């Protein structure tokens, strides 16, 4: 009912909590992300950033609280149901289909959204729209040359790119990326940020990152998660200036990160 | 036909659950053909082609094809009525579809009564007594044992075990209505590792006798468990006490408690006993498939009578043929091709004296306690034999 | 959109491209002429068995190779397909249902998929070891229960039928074995085609994805359980067709035979031996299965020993199955390097012969002592008479074996080295092409 | 059900359960730690029995009780060293298949050496006869001995797992073998020892099982799948689970034998008329006692559906 | 203490290290820098006996080339791999337990030291390591290797995925190790931290060492930095 009056948010978390056994990891998170925003989530290790992603994407069910996607409750739904509602995520640890080629990996990501569900009465090769979309994607993520290479045989950076590719393939308009640039060199990271920017134009984006360069380069807003709570949610400048954030997360490295700003 | 070599295919398991039995039987046939080839009435030589059918009806049909390719026109088989049925079925079709290439089947041990009743076939001849006949003899014996009052029936849950139970109940009801069936159990074939619960149940039921059609480890383990639990005053009436492995399992502990019904036993005297002893000496195993002797005798005499080894000519001769086998005068009943022969009740006991042939080196043997003339065990048939119209 | 470089026509499925036409025509020709070359009645049954086993092994591979599901209970669907098919034949024979024989395999297929729908609902909820164990349990249950319901399963004897019923189909009665063979061959061809087509459909591809990484599949919109379930049903359908054909072929179906764990095991074994990674692997597997089951046991009493040996060595040295050996060589050939191996292959074969002969002679003599001693000490081994009581026979066999082993090892070492070189060159070549 | 029958059945159930545990403890070790579905496990069991038969003929049963398992263990270790290890890197299915092949080989070799029929492997005099008599039913010493051995196995495997890091090393090595080596553990040797140990346990089970029951070539196949049931129902990675599952299966199965009830009798009791013409009569008429020996499989399926980790398991795959 | 001379290493048939020579002295922190793919991780693996290597490799006067990894570990070299390789199904505590060699007696490090260093790990000690956060896993790997009481510890990109504050912490701990007389071979991407704490810096390029000197001299040598480190 409240949704009718309020403007619907792309993602809205209300009083979200999650415990594993006795330990409460997420301790009441309220967060509303407007459609089209790019939000970075930062916080110390083990603060619960990935867990938050898991709760939103359906990998885990919250202990209590609500998750809303475009105003619709999605907590407790299975990952594929949430995905069908237009939310897609990538993983901190690369999570693709190792024995399929780059092209097939991406095409798998495309299929459902184009309505080719469990069909076994049509040939993939005849699904023009799927193939066109895949072809487009493959160039977007810069893997055109590796079209028929099996995913296992890609280099780490290429796998990360593929990971992003599979994530955006379904055309979801809410995208969650978990440490997309981890393990990449500076050059690769820079290239990657522009890639992410480019493929998420007009979409709602949530990323988890430790690399302050990336965070400040990518985000319109930053949410700081500490010990399972959001202690700040504001513009980059405001967050950087926030003493609690400095205390809890940035330490003296702020200077470093600023220096490394791109 | 003199000097001719007749190829006889033997299709039975040499691997799997019944490998030991099959191997023993193949040796029996090889050993006996050697004997028969020396003094064959028809002057022909037998050649046994042993093929492993893995106890599987499907493999049996393939094996049959291969046997026919090798020129065999006689088939021997005995283990498992499933395979028997497969052969009958295949031969019915083959013999109808390929005149001039008819094949004849001698069944030496598959005992499902259906094979000579609803499923009887002109090309099939059975030498063992079927389940109903053995039960006829067995219950006739039990009828005269006044101390039998409570009977427990246990069997493998497949056609053989079910039939044993069925005939046991029918026969006892007819011959000794006062006998109580205090329990009946069917257990899955070759699945039970521990028979103690069954023994406990038998004991609790107060039974004084157990009837079982079990064979192989299902029998060995059953009797072992009974011995272990000290079930001393219960008699076991069994079908397959001599089959490889069972005597070893029974050993001394079962002495005096196990009765077997069969068309023969190891202490028959005469040629069969001599051959048995020689067999044991040569192979360190017992010759218990004595119907092999009957099979070879029957074929030899039929060849001689038919003056041919062509199954088409031999089959009519076999119908109703009377001949003498190791266990006396027998007749291949014309109506259903079931051999009519006398049956023996034997008891597991110490070997020696008149009955010296110990089984599997246990020092024990099946001692004959009663002989029944063929007519006693004879059971009616419902067979409507379809003979090829010639 | 500007990045689009290839036109849609590039992907279009062109059923009539040259390579496909050649391969499928060859397959058809082999199916057609095989019985003209191998004429004995045993050969004909073997060919018939191969025909439906190809379907069964391919259907098994939908689970194993394409879906990563290790099933120990595939015989359930084949066997139940057989039973329903045979009951349908009996009904049709009695004039109950007017189903022509040519459609009986479809009945089997429907039965197979019906039971796959029934049991698959629980089995496919899980994957990995859990899946394997559930199928093992269900397999054992169905097999044991079958013996307890003689009404439907015909008890020990099974259910028999006569496939010659109804009006002849264009003068074909399906009495003679070779007519049945051609029926099987037609089904084999069509089913192989269909299953191949399946690999190119969305469901088929997602099934591969589920095999590789089930978790991720959930995040691209698919319900993995559903994917496995559908694949399971499709596999059940083809398994049932295979079962129906088996019923027609044997005209008898038997629970002990067609439902037991051993049967399921052999589908697994031979699918794997043929090569689960490639579509055509199971076809090779099925052919081998028939050879192993029918021929090997007739050639030698030691078939289980040979079987075990071959199996252990195959898994150890060619874990991708025979198909992978073929593909490896094709790859070498594609890079034009196969020529240098012909000589070595020849040498391998030549040196393997004495090893095999020597070993087999010894094994056969041992078995002879155990199984055929009733026939005297001599045996016929490849037209040579061996005498188990003579030292010379043993010594000779051992000598041949040892000499062969020595030579074989020498050749093998050389082969391994050269093969390594060739692979290196190929890798380099691939890198170079990628750069270009 | 009388008290008498109840007590005896309980005893039978427990002792059968312990027999199952004895058969499967080695498999638990290998399967739940190394993830290898060792299809040759019961072949090692059979080898143990045959070797003990031969050895006890020469030096007597008691020495054989130690020698035979050691021999079987050595064979297991050798198999791991020369065959399984090569296959390990290809994954679990090939591992399983190679043990499958091995089971064929062992069976054939056993038949070649000892023949195809039962061998007269008997109990030593110390184990013959009853240990005690309860309500007129004897409880044999041999069965008690099996129970004792099973408990000793439980104890020793438990000590092995809790007092040493072997279990951890193996589990870790399944994931990152190189890392475990880099931490200073000799991974190949640990694998070899565990596989050999599992085989030795199977061998020991054979030594005592072979003479209590029968020693024949079919003995391996006959216990083939039931022991997988025990391990899986108990829960992968859980020794206690396997123990619990063995006892549970043993007891349930034993008592099930006593129950001559069927769905038909149940329905009749509820006043539903069930006759031979009722649909599904053969199924309805099947008594619990008739299906008792296959109940474990039902158990397996149900457990896996409702609790895939097994009774006390910690992991699913 | 550790001496590499003309080490060549191969992945299967591909030649990755083309003659690497350097040494590490007792109680020294040596940073091994270089671009992605320059062969730093391979060098670490070569020392640990995890890849096929040729050349001369000595540790405490012993030839350790071609020794098995577990033998090398027992001789006192600890290795923290770049992709963490935690054992996901084991608990944190069990992971640490596996780091110990033998009974762990006489080791410089105890569980309490580790938990003191990263209290977060103590909180999570009975949790399966697989569900730890990325950063926690990184801490765990480091501690696991320390439990084996090495005299030289090779750390491959320890700060990856760590929050900036923790990165500083790790830097401090590496200094502590040095104070306890343990040598460190630090493979790092983040120049700043590496330059801060190391005594010596090595730069690797195309499978061999192209610079060997103090951090200060590296800072001064813009040419080297430009060619081998920066973009
Ligand atoms: N399934 C689980 N069971 C128990 N604890 C868990 C589980 N999943 C996560 N945790 C715990 O929750 C805490 C938060 O983990 P999470 O992965 O969300 O951290 P994070 O903020 O992403 O940290 P990092 O930046 O290091 O990746 C960690 O302490 C982790 O151990
Ligand atoms: N397992 C492998 N098989 C084949 N080549 C490999 C393998 N691992 C690394 N390489 C190659 O070896 C070279 C050196 O790799 P290495 O991992 O040592 O680099 P690095 O300096 O540690 O870089 P990074 O920053 O990516 O960790 C690279 O070209 C890489 O592609
Ligand atoms: C030989 C016997 C043990 C088998 C028996 N003839 C049967 O049909 O089951
Ligand atoms: Mg995280
Ligand atoms: Mg690296």
From TrEMBL, chain A:
Where is each ABC transporter domain found? 11-252
Lineage: superkingdom: Bacteria
Read off the Pfam families from this record. ABC_tran, BCA_ABC_TP_C
Which Gene3D superfamilies did the record assign?
P-loop containing nucleotide triphosphate hydrolases
Instruction: For this UniProt record, give its keywords in alphabetical order, as a comma-separated list.
Output: ATP-binding, Cell membrane, Membrane, Nucleotide-binding, Transport
Record GO terms (molecular function): ATP binding
Record flagged with keyword Coiled coil:
no
Instruction: Please identify the protein, giving its name as recorded.
Output: ABC transporter ATP-binding protein
UniProtKB/TrEMBL annotation, chain C:
Cellular location(s): Cell membrane
Per the UniProt record, one Pfam family is BPD_transp_2
Q: What is its main location?
A: membrane
Q: Does the keyword rRNA-binding apply?
A: no
Q: How does it sit in the membrane?
A: Multi-pass membrane protein
Where is the chain membrane-spanning? Answer: 21-38, 44-63, 75-93, 99-119, 180-198, 267-294, 306-330, 342-369, 389-408
Keyword list (alphabetical) reads: Cell membrane, Membrane, Transmembrane, Transmembrane helix
InterPro entries, per database record: ABC_transp_permease, LivM-like
Name recorded for this polypeptide: Branched-chain amino acid ABC transporter permease
Q: What is the lineage of its organism?
A: Bacteria, Pseudomonadati, Pseudomonadota, Betaproteobacteria, Burkholderiales
UniProtKB/TrEMBL annotation, chain D:
- Record's family? Belongs to the binding-protein-dependent transport system permease family. LivHM subfamily.
Q: Name one Pfam family in it.
A: BPD_transp_2
**InterPro entries cross-referenced by the UniProt entry:** ABC_transp_permease (IPR001851), BCAA_transport_permease (IPR052157)
* Domain of life of the organism encoding this protein: Bacteria
Question: What high-level taxonomic lineage is stated for the organism?
Answer: Bacteria, Pseudomonadati, Pseudomonadota, Betaproteobacteria, Burkholderiales
Its membrane topology is listed as:
Multi-pass membrane protein
Its localization reads:
Cell membrane
Q: Does Transmembrane show up as a keyword for this record?
A: yes
Q: Which UniProt keywords apply?
A: Amino-acid transport, Cell membrane, Membrane, Transmembrane, Transmembrane helix, Transport
Q: What is this protein called?
A: Branched-chain amino acid ABC transporter permease
Q: Which CDD domains match?
A: TM_PBP1_LivH_like (cd06582)
Which residue ranges does UniProt annotate as crossing the membrane?
16-39, 51-76, 96-114, 145-170, 190-214, 226-259, 279-306
Automatic annotation (TrEMBL), chain E:
Annotated ABC transporter domain residues: 2-231
UniProt keyword list: Amino-acid transport, ATP-binding, Cell membrane, Membrane, Nucleotide-binding, Transport
Q: Do you know which InterPro entries this protein is assigned to?
A: AAA+_ATPase, ABC_transporter-like_ATP-bd, ABC_transporter-like_CS, BCAA_Transport_ATP-bd_LivF, P-loop_NTPase
What sections of the protein cross the membrane? none
What is the superkingdom listed in this entry's lineage?
Bacteria
**GO MF annotation terms:** ATP binding
Q: What Pfam families does the record point to?
A: ABC_tran (PF00005)
The UniProt entry, under PANTHER family, shows: ABC TRANSPORTER ATP-BINDING PROTEIN, HIGH-AFFINITY BRANCHED-CHAIN AMINO ACID TRANSPORT ATP-BINDING PROTEIN LIVF
- Which family does the record claim for this protein? Belongs to the ABC transporter superfamily.
What is the designated name of this protein? ABC transporter ATP-binding protein
Biological source species: Variovorax ureilyticus
């Amino acid at each position: 009912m409240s949704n009718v009056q309020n403007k619907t948010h792309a993602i809205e978390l209300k009083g979200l909590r999650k415990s594993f056994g006795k330990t409460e990891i997420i301790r009441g998170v309220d967060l509303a992300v407007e459609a089209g925003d790019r939000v970075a989530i930062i916080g110390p290790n083990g603060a619960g950033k990935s867990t938050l992603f898991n709760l939103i994407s359906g990998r885990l069910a919250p202990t209590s609280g609500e998750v809303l996607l475009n105003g619709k409750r999605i907590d407790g739904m299975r990952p594929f149901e949430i995905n069908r509602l237009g939310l897609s995520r990538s993983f901190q640890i690369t999570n693709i289909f190792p024995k399929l080629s780059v092209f097939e990996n991406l095409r798998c990501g495309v299929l459902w959204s184009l309505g080719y569900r469990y069909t076994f009465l049509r040939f993939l090769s005849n699904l023009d729209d799927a193939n066109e979309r895949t072809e487009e994607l493959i160039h977007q993520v810069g893997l055109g040359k590796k079209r028929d290479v099996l995913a296992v045989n890609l280099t780490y950076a290429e796998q990360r790119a593929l990971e992003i590719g599979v994530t955006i393939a379904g055309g979801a308009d809410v995208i969650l990326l978990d440490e997309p640039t981890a393990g990449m060199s500076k050059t690769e990271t820079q290239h990657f940020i522009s890639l992410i920017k480019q493929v998420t134009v007009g979409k709602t984006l949530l990323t988890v990152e430790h690399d302050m360069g990336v965070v400040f380069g990518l985000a319109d807003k930053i949410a700081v998660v500490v010990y399972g709570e959001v202690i700040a949610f504001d513009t980059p400048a405001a967050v950087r200036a926030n003493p609690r954030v400095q205390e809890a997360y940035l330490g003296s490295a702020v200077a470093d990160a600023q220096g490394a700003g791109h | 036909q003199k000097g001719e070599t007749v190829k006889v295919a033997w299709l039975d398991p040499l691997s799997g659950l019944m490998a030991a039995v099959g191997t023993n039987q193949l040796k029996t046939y090889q050993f006996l053909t050697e004997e028969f080839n020396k003094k064959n009435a028809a002057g022909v030589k037998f050649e046994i082609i042993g093929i492993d059918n893995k106890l599987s009806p499907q493999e049996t049909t393939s094996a049959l094809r291969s046997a026919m390719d090798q020129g065999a026109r006689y088939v021997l088989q005995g283990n498992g009525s499933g395979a028997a049925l497969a052969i009958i079925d295949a031969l019915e079709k083959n013999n109808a579809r390929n005149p001039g290439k008819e094949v004849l089947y001698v069944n030496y041990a598959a005992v499902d009564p259906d094979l000579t009743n609803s499923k009887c076939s002109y090309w099939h001849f059975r030498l063992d007594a079927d389940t109903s006949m053995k039960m006829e003899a067995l219950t006739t014996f039990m009828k005269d044992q006044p101390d039998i009052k409570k009977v427990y029936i246990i069997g493998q849950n497949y056609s053989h075990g079910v039939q044993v139970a069925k005939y046991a109940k029918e026969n006892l009801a007819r011959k000794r209505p006062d006998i109580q069936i205090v329990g009946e159990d069917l257990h899955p074939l070759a699945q039970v590792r521990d028979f103690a619960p069954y023994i406990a149940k038998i004991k609790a039921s107060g039974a004084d006798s157990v009837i079982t059609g079990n064979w192989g480890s299902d029998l060995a383990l059953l009797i072992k468990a009974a011995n272990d639990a000290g079930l001393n005053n219960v008699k076991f009436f069994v079908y397959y006490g001599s089959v490889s492995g069972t005597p070893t399992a029974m050993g001394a502990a079962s002495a005096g408690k196990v009765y077997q019904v069969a068309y023969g036993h190891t202490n028959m005297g005469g040629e069969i006993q001599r051959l048995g002893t020689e067999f044991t000496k040569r192979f360190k195993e017992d010759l218990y498939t004595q119907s092999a002797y009957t099979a070879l005798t029957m074929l030899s005499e039929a060849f001689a009578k038919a003056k041919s080894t062509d199954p088409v000519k031999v089959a009519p001769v076999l119908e109703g043929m009377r001949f003498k086998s190791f266990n006396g005068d027998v007749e291949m009943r014309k109506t259903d091709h079931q051999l009519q022969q006398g049956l023996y009740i034997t008891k597991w006991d110490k070997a020696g004296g008149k009955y010296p042939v110990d089984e599997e080196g246990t020092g024990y043997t099946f001692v004959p306690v009663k002989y029944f003339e063929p007519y006693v065990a004879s059971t009616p048939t419902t067979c409507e034999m379809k003979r090829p119209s010639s | 959109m500007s990045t689009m470089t290839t036109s849609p026509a590039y992907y279009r499925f062109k059923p009539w491209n040259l390579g496909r036409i050649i391969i499928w025509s060859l397959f058809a020709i082999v199916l057609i002429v095989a019985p003209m070359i191998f004429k004995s009645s045993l050969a004909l049954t073997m060919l018939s068995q191969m025909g439906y086993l190809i379907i069964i092994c391919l259907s098994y591979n939908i689970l194993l190779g394409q879906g990563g599901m290790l099933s120990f209970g595939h015989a359930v669907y084949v066997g139940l397909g057989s039973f329903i098919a045979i009951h349908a034949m009996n009904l049709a024979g009695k004039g109950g249902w007017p189903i022509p024989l040519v459609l009986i395999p479809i009945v089997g297929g429907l039965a197979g998929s019906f039971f796959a729908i029934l049991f698959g609902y629980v089995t496919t909820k899980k994957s990995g070891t859990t899946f394997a164990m559930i199928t093992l349990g269900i397999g054992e249950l169905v097999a044991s229960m079958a013996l307890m319901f003689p009404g439907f399963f015909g008890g020990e004897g099974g259910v028999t039928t006569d496939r010659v019923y109804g009006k002849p189909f264009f003068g074909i009665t399906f009495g003679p074995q070779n007519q049945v063979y051609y029926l099987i061959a037609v089904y084999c061809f069509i089913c192989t085609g269909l299953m191949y087509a399946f690999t190119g459909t969305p469901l088929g591809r997602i099934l591969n994805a589920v095999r590789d990484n089930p978790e991720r599949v959930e995040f691209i919109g698919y319900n993995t359980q559903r994917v496995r379930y559908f694949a399971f049903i499709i596999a059940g359908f083809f398994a049932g067709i295979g079962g129906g054909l088996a019923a027609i072929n044997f005209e008898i179906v038997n629970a002990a035979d067609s439902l037991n764990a051993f049967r399921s095991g052999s589908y697994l074994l031979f699918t794997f031996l043929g090569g689960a990674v490639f579509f055509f692997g199971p076809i090779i597997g099925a052919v081998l299965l028939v050879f192993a089951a029918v021929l090997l046991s007739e050639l030698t009493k030691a078939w289980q020993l040979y079987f075990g040996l071959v199996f252990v060595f195959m898994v150890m040295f060619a874990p991708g199955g025979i198909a992978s050996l073929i593909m490896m060589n094709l790859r070498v050939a594609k890079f034009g390097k196969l020529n240098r191996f012909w000589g070595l292959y020849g040498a391998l074969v030549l040196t393997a012969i004495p090893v095999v002969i020597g070993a087999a002679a010894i094994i056969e003599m041992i078995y002879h002592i155990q199984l055929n001693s009733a026939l005297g000490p001599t045996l016929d081994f490849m037209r040579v008479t061996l005498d188990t009581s003579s030292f010379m026979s043993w010594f000779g066999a051992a000598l041949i074996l040892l000499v062969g082993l020595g030579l074989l090892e020498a050749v093998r070492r050389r082969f391994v080295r050269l093969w390594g070189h060739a692979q290196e060159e190929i890798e380099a070549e691939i890198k170079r092409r990628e750069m270009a | 059900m009388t008290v008498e029958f109840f007590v005896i059945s309980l005893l039978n159930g427990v002792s059968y359960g312990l027999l199952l545990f004895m058969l499967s403890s080695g498999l638990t070790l290998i399967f739940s730690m190394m993830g290898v579905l060792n299809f040759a496990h019961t072949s090692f069991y059979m080898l143990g029995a045959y070797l003990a038969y031969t050895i006890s003929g020469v030096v007597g049963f008691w020495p054989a009780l130690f020698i035979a398992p050691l021999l079987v263990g050595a064979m297991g270790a050798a198999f791991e060293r020369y065959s399984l290890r090569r296959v390990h890197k290809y994954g679990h299915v090939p591992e399983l298949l190679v043990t499958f092949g091995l089971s064929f080989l062992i069976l054939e070799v056993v038949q070649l050496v000892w023949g195809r029929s039962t061998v007269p492997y008997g109990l030593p005099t110390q184990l013959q006869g009853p240990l005690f008599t309860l309500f007129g039913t004897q409880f044999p010493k041999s069965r008690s001995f099996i129970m004792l051995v099973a408990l000793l196995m439980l104890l020793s495997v438990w000590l092995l797992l809790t007092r040493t890091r072997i279990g951890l090393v193996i589990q870790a090595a399944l994931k990152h073998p190189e890392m475990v080596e880099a931490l200073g553990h000799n991974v190949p040797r640990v694998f070899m020892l565990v596989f050999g140990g599992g085989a030795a346990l199977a061998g020991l089970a054979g030594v005592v099982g072979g003479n209590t029951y029968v020693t024949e070539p079919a003995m391996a196949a006959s216990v083939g799948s039931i022991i997988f049931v025990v391990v899986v129902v108990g829960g992968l990675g859980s020794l206690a689970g396997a123990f619990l599952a063995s006892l549970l299966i043993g007891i349930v199965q034993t008592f099930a034998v006593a129950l001559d009830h069927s769905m038909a009798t149940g329905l009749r009791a509820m006043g539903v008329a069930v006759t031979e013409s009722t649909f599904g009569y053969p199924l309805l008429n099947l008594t619990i006692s008739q299906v008792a020996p296959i109940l474990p499989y039902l158990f397996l399926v149900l457990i896996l559906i409702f609790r895939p980790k097994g009774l006390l398991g910690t992991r699913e795959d | 203490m550790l001496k590499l001379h003309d080490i060549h290493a191969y992945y299967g048939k591909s030649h990755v290290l083309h003659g690497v020579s350097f040494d590490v002295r007792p109680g020294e922190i040596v940073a091994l820098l270089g671009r992605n793919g320059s062969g730093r991780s391979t060098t670490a693996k070569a020392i640990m006996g995890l890849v096929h290597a040729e050349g001369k490799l000595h540790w405490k006067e012993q030839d350790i080339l071609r020794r098995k990894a577990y033998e090398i570990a027992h001789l006192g070299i600890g290795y923290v791999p770049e992709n963490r390789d935690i054992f996901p199904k084991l608990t944190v505590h069990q992971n640490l337990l596996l780091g110990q060699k033998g009974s762990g007696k006489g080791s410089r490090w105890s569980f309490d030291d580790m938990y003191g260093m990263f209290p977060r790990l103590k909180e999570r000690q009975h949790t399966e390591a697989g569900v730890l956060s990325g950063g926690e896993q990184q801490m765990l790997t480091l501690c696991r290797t320390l439990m084996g009481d090495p005299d030289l510890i090779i750390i491959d990109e320890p700060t990856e995925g760590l929050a900036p504050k923790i990165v500083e912490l790790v830097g401090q701990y590496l200094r502590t190790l040095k104070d306890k007389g343990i040598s460190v071979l630090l493979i790092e991407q983040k120049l700043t931290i590496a330059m801060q704490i190391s005594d010596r810096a090595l730069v690797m390029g195309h499978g061999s060492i192209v610079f060997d000197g103090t951090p200060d001299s590296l800072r001064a040598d813009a040419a080297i930095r430009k060619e081998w480190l920066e973009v």
